[in-house]
Every structure is written in structure tokens, then in C-alpha cells.
Specification:
It is built from eleven helices and nine strands. The strands form two sheets. A six-stranded mixed beta sheet has the order 1-2-3-4-6-9, sandwiched between helices. The chain has a three-stranded mixed beta sheet with strand order 5-7-8. By secondary structure, it is α/β, with parallel strands linked by helices. Helices cover 47% and strands 13% of the residues.
């Protein structure tokens, strides 16, 4: 696995990888390098079969202050310079938005579980990013905001599509219409994050890594299959979902991991799963 970036670091500890937002001097503002490098990081993780869980965290005092408005201002304003026409400027802007959307979606499409560990500010595009994760944890210092309405933007990188699957419609509307800040306890009450751990980034990252290793001890075939079945429920009836999981287990249930699970149970020892 080879990955290099000026704004992201990728660390691997056994079956768990940690993707760090590492543009500390800019409070991890999301600029062009991030949108280019994030899908490359996802590809690097996906290409390593030894990685069973990904944690997304941040260096410095904040997870992210959101979109880098200074760097991305020309894009938001229509591309800068003198476009050939209004249509050309619109096309350029559309492609830029789709590129950023695809960067976030690259995280969502990972077959392995993704855990977001949030401390400090998680604003705007940060919400887009953590909504693409499967599990979200926060420190008591975490502040969340769907900030776009406050800067005259309709959130367009996935929050309005993914957040309604995480919290209730009323909470989505309140957060998106007001752009207000909410603290970690409020975020936990509405279900945006699962739990609050300590006060610092180190605290919540430690909790996320502990959870990640707990997940990684299970059969990767079963964990990834569970993620696939959960995702497949979208837009399906219960009966259609049952048909999907029946077909899934027909293909994948008879694995070496299942044999190992039964053997370990009989031998009264922890199982050692290989993902085969």
C-alpha cells in the first residue's frame, strides 16, 4: 500500500488503519488537495486486504473547520477569470462539485467499517465527511454545525442526503436551516454520534481504535457482509431485504471463518479469522 499526501496521513496498526486530517496550520480546512487525495486514500485502504476497519480522525485542535473558503472561493464564485460564457462557468462549477461529492462517496463505498472520531470543530464539509462513516464518536469538546446556510450555500456534498438516515427529519431541518452549532451531548441525544469520550482528540481516537480492534476481531467476511446488507436495505421492502441477505449467505456463509468459529467454540478458545 502506497499513499502520500500533504493534507492526509495514513497509519496502519495491524488490521486497523487511521486516516488523519493533517492540515493543522489551517485547522484542517478542506481544500483542493483534500478533494484530490481523499479518494486516493480510500483506494489505498481498499487495496490492502489486511485492513479490516478504518478510523478517520484529525491532528491538531479541530477535526475540520469545513470548506476552505479562501482557497475554494474562485470555484464557488464561478471558476475565476473570464469564462467563455455563463454556461461554461456553470459547467466548470458543476464538475467541481461532483468531484468533491465523489471524494466523500469514496469513503462511504469502502467495504470495511469506517469510524469517525471527532474533536473540536466539525463544520460544514466535516459533517459531509462523518456522515459517510458507519459510526461516529465525539469528545466533549466537539462542536458540530451544518454551517452552509450561514454562508449562503445549500449543502451539496452529501449531508442533506445522508444525515436524514442518521437523525430524524426534524433535527436535519433544524440544523440545516439554522446553521447553528451543537455540542457533543446534543449530538449524542439526537443520534449524530454514538457516544462521548473524554475531552481531547486523543481520548476519542483511543476509544475509536478500541472499537475498531473489537470489530476487527470478528470475521471480516461477516462484518463486510453485514455492512453490505445494511446498505442494501435502502429503497427495499423488508421482504426484498430478506431475499437479499438470503442470497448473500447462500454465496458466502460456507467459509473457512465459519469452520474456525465452530472449531474455536468446541475448543473453548478465541477464534482466529482470516477472511476466507
Amino acid at each position: 500500500m502506497t499513499f502520500s499526501s500533504t493534507v492526509l496521513d495514513l497509519d496502519v496498526q495491524g488490521p486497523v488503519a487511521t486516516l488523519w486530517l493533517s492540515r493543522v496550520d489551517a485547522r484542517n480546512a478542506l481544500g483542493r488537495a483534500l478533494w484530490h487525495d481523499l479518494p486516493l486514500a480510500a483506494q489505498a485502504v481498499a487495496s490492502d486486504p489486511a485492513i479490516r476497519v478504518l478510523v478517520i480522525a484529525a491532528r491538531g485542535d479541530h477535526f475540520t473547520v469545513g470548506l476552505d473558503l479562501k482557497e475554494m472561493g474562485s470555484t464557488l464564485g464561478g471558476g475565476g477569470g473570464t469564462p467563455a460564457s455563463h454556461a461554461a462557468a456553470s459547467a466548470t462549477f458543476y464538475e467541481a462539485v461532483r468531484t468533491m461529492q465523489d471524494s466523500i462517496t469514496a469513503i462511504e463505498k469502502l467495504k470495511i467499517p469506517v469510524i469517525a472520531a471527532v474533536h473540536g470543530y466539525c463544520i460544514g464539509g466535516g459533517i459531509d465527511l462523518i456522515c459517510a462513516a458507519d459510526i461516529r464518536l465525539g469528545s466533549s469538546s466537539a462542536i458540530f454545525s451544518v454551517r452552509e446556510a450561514k454562508v449562503a450555500i445549500v449543502a451539496d456534498l452529501g449531508t442533506l442526503q445522508r444525515l436524514p438516515k442518521i437523525v430524524s427529519a426534524g433535527h436535519v431541518a433544524e440544523l440545516a436551516y439554522t446553521g447553528k452549532d451543537i455540542d457533543a451531548q446534543y449530538a449524542m441525544r439526537i443520534g449524530l454520534i454514538n457516544n462521548v469520550f473524554g475531552e481531547t482528540g486523543d481520548d476519542v481516537v483511543a476509544a475509536a481504535l478500541e472499537l475498531a480492534h473489537e470489530i476487527a476481531r470478528n470475521s471480516p467476511l461477516a462484518v463486510q457482509g453485514t455492512k453490505a446488507v445494511l446498505a442494501a436495505n435502502d429503497g427495499r421492502t423488508v421482504e426484498e431485504g430478506l431475499e437479499f441477505v438470503a442470497r448473500w449467505n447462500t454465496m458466502y456463509l460456507q467459509s473457512n471463518d465459519l469452520t474456525e468459529a465452530m472449531t474455536a467454540f468446541l475448543e473453548r478458545r478465541p477464534p482466529h479469522f482470516t477472511g476466507n
